[in-house]
Amino acid sequence: MAFDWSQYRCAGLHDEMFSAPDVPRPSARALLAYLRSMSPKELADRRLAADLAIKVMGITFTVYSEGKNVDRAWPFDLLPRVISKTEWERTERGLKQRVNALNQFIQDLYGDQKIIKDKIVPAEVLADSVNFRPQCVGVKPKFGVWAHICGSDLVRDGDGTLYVLEDNLRVPSGVSYMLENRAVTKRVWPEIFETTTILPVDDYPAQLYDTLAALSPRPGDTPNVVLLTPGIYNSAYFEHAYLAQQMGIELVEGSDLFVDSDDCVYMRTIYGPKRVDVIYRRIDDLFIDPEAFRPDSILGCKGLMRAWIKGKVGLANAPGAGVADDKVIYAFVPQMIKYYLGEDAILPNVPSYLCMDEKQRKYVLANLDKLVVKPANESGGYGMLIGPRASAEERAKFRELIKQNPRNYMAQPTLSLSTGPTITDDGIEPRHLDLRPFILSRGESTYVTTGGLTRVALVKGSLVVNSSQGGGSKDTWVVDLDEDAELPAASKSQSQSQAQSAAQLGDKGVG
Amino acid sequence: MLSRVAENLYWFGRYLQRAENTARLINVNANLMLDLPRRMTLGWGTLIEIVGSTPRFQSLYEQATEENVVRYLMTDERNPASIRSSLHTAREILRTVRDTMPRETWERVNDVYFYVLERGDTSLARAPRQAFLQQAVSGTLLVYGVLTSNMSRDVGFQFLRIGTNIEQADMTTRILDVRTYSLLGVQPGADLSPFESIQWMSVLRSLTAYQMYRRHVRMRVNGPGVLRFLLQNREFPRSVMFCLTTIASTLPALPGNRKIERAIERTRALVRDANLDVQFTAEGQLPQLMDEIQIGLGELHNALAETYFSSGT
Hints:
heterodimer, A: about 500 residues, alpha+beta, Rossmann fold, Dna Ligase, domain 1, 5-stranded mixed β-sheet, 4-stranded antiparallel β-sheet, 16 helices, 24 strands, B: about 325 residues, mainly alpha, 15 helices
């Protein structure tokens, strides 16, 4: 007996697969026809196979729990999230535009600060930014690019609008899971790929390598590119090892590197010191160089900033790029796009209220029960207040926090995040999700992943998608409907008849 | 190749080999126990001596019973050389050097590690144990299979080979040391000759050498013959000579290694020049030879560490 999709309760929600209960969106039609033919037993078997594959493939993430590092299997939901190619093309344009403006903004802040002189962004925003690095003032990295790798979080509201929720410009993570999710789906469910033309995602490591190699201070030679990890206890270590492997570059730790008297960076090898040209660093600014930043850091490499400023090594992302990764600065991105590019933002921001502004603060304090309040510089979903779900006590606590440090807080209306069908212990149910595409900037060109990482809140009704807090993930498909339309007639009619018989089965289920 | 990575690959090879050898050791000992008369005292404690873990074992267990020894060697997390701990360490190391090895290596290591983790505690009793240990051995062999078939013969591969071979040479000498000692210690006059030959056979079996011995030596299994085969044979992959020669063969691919060459040469000469017929009968000479080989392996390790693992600046 097949799962009865007419019982899938998505009324009143914006669902990524259904435009109305039992009415699939065009991009998901073929997929759903196939899914209709599957019994809950078959789905459960595939789910087990996926769990096993994840274990065998060793796809994990690390969480701190009771003072110990626990390596957990990556939580994955088998039902893919589908996006049409048409919608994706527009999104891709919007992301490129946005990251372009953000890079110009960062260069401006560490240079002439025109945007502040022109009073587009208030001076106090910059003065109080914890991620502004005075050490970077006057530096002009190659191509003027600071955030070579950006992970922007996109969410869809109940009315279907796709908003940018935040931009991660420091050390965004998650791309390895995007790639692994696809690998798992291919491995345990190859038949599902026959339903639709799905654009591949596998190009990312090669694109990332090109982005990094372009930063070499010694063009011409094959550059020595390395990935600098804080080590095995970092929650994203899996990703660091994965990407290094995919790109065929060395995975190094701070203790493997040193900066010599010629200001060049070297790594310790069995052949003796070897010059390093580009470092993809996955360590936060403050820890990369005890000479320039936190003197107690043992993760980084002494003298790295010196080497970077003198142009002897490429660093991605550039130190200081995080200044634009501030949730208050976020609110000014549409103005930045206008200011630097003379264009209107293609992708809208979520309406934001800045607590530093008196009027807006009053509104926030009066409407705490309706808003989501975020600290300016936290990531991973920590330190947030989700107003409608919070207790009176929590709201009172945030009221005080905001009054004490208004610059550090901003608020947004609680969005009714879109949902996608997710396999749960009680059958298939809608769960809220978001999307994190990754954008690579190389100056002359910009690359956006095909889709990105879809994160899903596995807890019923929850809006928190972070894997450290009970979130899972889905394979993300960008599907090309035009391509499908051009399939040879024979295979098309076959899939149509399959869809029809599956639909009839579904009807019987209702009756 | 980063010095840190070279060192990790070396230890990965050692721990994987250790897990495999320990699994065989337990299985062979169990078979031997079935063949020996009850009055023979040779028991499970020997295995603890072989792995050189007597003080730690005694601090954790009162008696060297079959149950205690098997638990200690198979699944005890407090024993850093138990099968479970060895695989755990190998897996943790592999995590840091995954990028240097074919992806399947990681998958196969996970297979065998999770198998041991999940099934170990319920496989301690005699009946399920044999199948469990065989599965553990097969699991590690699959890892070698992936490495030999799919890994480029780059310097990383050479460090793996050095690690596995030094570990094997170490284990072979340990087994010979402890086993020959207990065999030689048999009281004169006690008529144990049929069992003596069984025991020499079990020494061969713990190193999967029985069949190859029969094929190549073509004489009945006896002490000097077994010693010669496991120390000096140039064709059997678990003999000390074979391991040392393999390590020597990796050196042309590695930079500046005069010191390592010398350490290997010294130990090889020691093994090659041993007159085992004489040493087998002369009191105290055999244990001394094994000690000297062990010291030679220790020097080799130190030379590797000095040359590659802490170099670079």
